[in-house]
Amino acid sequence: MSPEVFVDILSDALWLVILIVSMAIIPSLIVGLIVSIFQAATSINEQTLSFLPRLIVTLLALMYGGHWLTQTLMDYTEKLYLSIPTVVS
Fold first, then answer.
1. Where are its TM segments located (predicted)?
2. pLDDT band of 27, cuts 50, 70, 90
3. Which of 48, 51, 64, 88 has its CA 20 to 30 A from that of 79?
């Protein structure tokens, strides 16, 4: 295996990890920002008010994006398996 092929595979894998993680994290960050602005405006310092909406949004994002996430991982795995003959030779 040449270093260029290894770097390409690693680059694709890292991009896929960033894409999958951002699908779950970005909605949670947005809701957390909205809740923190609400808490700053109303001077409410309740920790569960910040935790529960982020948890619910993260679970909803994983529920709605689960099919895409699974399909993306399966496509990448299939691509890796199909590239074995070119990598080995």
1. 13-39, 51-70
2. very high
3. 64
